[in-house]
Amino acid sequence: MEDLIKLLPDNIANQIAAGEVIQRPASVVKELLENAIDAGATKIDVNIKDAGKTLIQIVDNGSGMGAADAKLCFKRHATSKVRSAEDLFSLTTKGFRGEALASVAAIAHVEMKTCLKNEEIGRCVTVEGSEIVHEEEIVCPKGTSFEIKNLFFNVPARRNFLKKDSTEFKHIQDEFERIALAHEELHLTLTHNGNQIYNLAPAVLRKRVVNIIGGNTNDRLVPIDEETDIVSLKGFVLKPEHARKTRGDQFFFVNNRYFRSSYFHHAVNKAFDGLLKDNSHPGYFLYLTVDTTKIDVNVHPTKTEIKFEEEKFIYSILLSSIKQALGKYNIAPTLEFEQESSFNIPHSMRSQPAVEPQIRVDEGYNPFKSTSKPSSGTTGKTKDNFSSAIVNQGFGETKPKPEDWQQFYTIEEKEEQDAEPIIELDDNPSAGSFIVKNNYIISPSKSGLMLINARRSIERIVYDEIFNSFISSPINLQQLLFPLEREVSKNESNLWEENQSILTQLGFAGAIEKGNLKISAVPSVLQEETISSSIDELFSTIAYQEIDKGDVAHALILSIAKSASLKKINLSTNESIQGLVDQLFQCEQHVYSPSNKKIIETISLDEIHLKFR
Fold first, then answer.
1. What residues of the chain score a pLDDT lower than 50?
2. The pLDDT of residue 1
3. Domain count, the chain
4. 41 and 118 co-located in one domain
C-alpha cells in the first residue's frame, strides 16, 4: 500500500504560514517595521503605493546584514533572537518567530539591499515565491532596504479579498501609528502615493501622541503614572468630555509592544462610569511595563494577544489609577491663562438673542393669612377635604368630637374627570392614528392595530428621498449662518479629502484648515442639533467600516438618514402624525428601515382579545 502521509514542499509550507502571518499589506508593514527596530534603527522610512498592492518599501539605518545572513533570513524559523525554549518567556524584541520574511517572500516579489555599518559593500538579494532568483554585491547605504512588489501574486484568491485602497491604507496607517506610539525615540516617516502622511521626529511621549492624533489633543490628555511591584503604568487618557463615538483612540502597550485586551479595556470603561455620554467611548494611550517572565506573547501569530500571569491585579491597578487621575482632574482642573474669560457659548445658541431674566412675584400671597374655619356638618370633613379633627386639635376654637376622629381614615373616591377616549378602528392606516412617548404611532388597520416606530420611519423616508435624488443630481443643501468647526485627526483629514467629491454631492461643504474641519453647508434634511452627530457618523462610516468602493454612497446616505432620524420629532397634531404615516407608506419598502430594523409591528384582533381573557 502506498504511503499516504508526505512532507509538504517548502514553498507550499511557506504559503500556509504566510496565510497566518500575512493577512493584508498592513501585516507586511508591521513585520518589517518590527525587524527594523530590532536591528537598532533610529530612522525608518515607509513608502507605500496603491495601499501596498503595488509597492511596500521600508528603509532603515539599522545594523544591516552580512552575506550569509542576507540569504538565511528568508528561510523559515530563521531567527537571531531565540536560542532555547526558555528564551520564549523572556523576550525583549519585537520579532522572534523567524516566519516574517519567509512568509513575505512566499507570496510576493522581494528585493532586499543591506549593508553592515562597518563595511563599504553590501548585498542585494531578489526572491520570488520563496526562491532566490538573484544576488549580487552592490554599493548601498548602511542599514537595510526592502521593496515588496506584487503582493499575493501567486495567491490570487487572497488578493481578490483585499478591500478598497482607502481601507487597506487605513490598516497600514494603524500599524504605523502603533509602532510610532510605542517608540517615540525613533524618526519615522510614512508616504502614500507620493504624499507624505507623517514625518515624526523623536519627541517625548506626550508630543508624539499629539503629533499622531492631531488637533488640540494636548489640552485633552490626563496623565497616568503609577509604580507598583507588579506593573509600571504610564500614559494618558482623554478627558471624558472629549470621548468619541468611535473606538479609534484606544491603545494598550506592554513592554513597548502593542496588544489588544477586552479584559483591560473593561477596566478602563469601568473607571469612566458615569462620566461619558451615551454611546461614547473613552480614548486612552496606556503603557504597561511588566516582568517578561510573567507574560506570554507567543499565543497568536500576529503577537497582538498576550497572556498575563497577574492580570487580575493589573486590572485593579488600571481601574484605580485611572479613577485617581480623573478625580484629580475633576477636583483641580487645569487653568488656561491664555483663554478668554467669556462664556463658551454652544454653537446652537450663538444666533439666539440674549434675554434678560425676569422675576415674578405673587403679590397676593400672605404667609400670615389664617386658614378659613371648617364648615359645620356631620361628615367630619372641612370644605378643603381635611379631617375636622386635624383642624380643631390644638389649633381650633372647639375641641374635636369622637366622630371627627372616626372620619380620619375615610378615603373618598374622586370623580373621574378625564375619562380615556374611546378609540374606534378604521380601515385607513393614516386615519385615527395617535402617538405614544413621541416615538411610537398606534394606527388602526383591517386586522387590528399597527405599531409604527416614528424614528425608523423617518430614517426610511429620508434614505429613500436622498437616494432617489442622489442618482440624478446633488441633494439640496442648507448654508450655515456660522460655520461649524470640528477638530479632525490626520487620518480623518485624509479621509475627508479622499471622499470630498461624493460628500459634496451629498450636500456637505467644508474645508480643512490647520487641523480643523470647517463645515459651511449640510444636507437640508439635517436639523442643527443633529449636524455634529452626523459628521461623527460620517467619519465612523468611512474610517472604521469595511466598505467596497461601490457601496460608499449607500453607506454615507444611510449615515445621514440615521442622523436625520435623531432630530426632535414634532408630532403634536393629527395632521403631522397622518403626514408621517402617509410618507412612510409611499416608500416602496416601508416594513424595514435601511438598517434592516423593523418599522411596523401588527397586533391582530385575536391577540388583543387574548389580552383580556
1. 331-343, 347-348, 373-378, 383, 390, 411-428, 430
2. 56
3. 4
4. yes
Q: Which residues of 152-185 are buried (b: 16+ CB within 10 A; e: fewer)?
A: bebbeebeeebbbbbbbbbbbbebbbbbbbbbbe
Last residue of a domain, one of 160, 183, 200: 200
Compute the distance between CA of residue 176 and CA of residue 450 in angstroms, rounded to an integer: 53
Contact 561, 459 (CB under 8 A): yes
* Local structure of residue 42 (DSSP, 8 states): S
Residue 190: enclosing H or E segment and its boundaries?
strand 187-192
Residue 240 is which amino acid? P
Longest CA–CA separation in the chain, Å: 121
Would you say the pTM of this structure is higher than 0.85? no
Asked whether residue 155 falls in the same domain as residue 227, the answer is no
pLDDT at 405: 57
Q: Identify the domain containing residue 391 by its residue range.
A: 374-410
CATH at residue 191? 3.30.565.10
Closest C-alpha to 57, from 123, 113, 97 = 113
| 184 and 211 both lie in a single domain | no
Contact 391, 399 (CB under 8 A): no
Residue 191 sits in the same domain as residue 225: no
What is the SS3 assignment for 386? coil
Does 50 lie in the same domain as 158?
yes
**Per-residue model confidence (pLDDT) at position 419:** 40
Report the C-alpha gap between 103 and 108 in whole angstroms: 9
Our CA dihedral for 421, 427, 428, 432, rounded to 10 degrees, sits at: 0
> Are residues 399 and 502 located together in one domain of the fold?
no
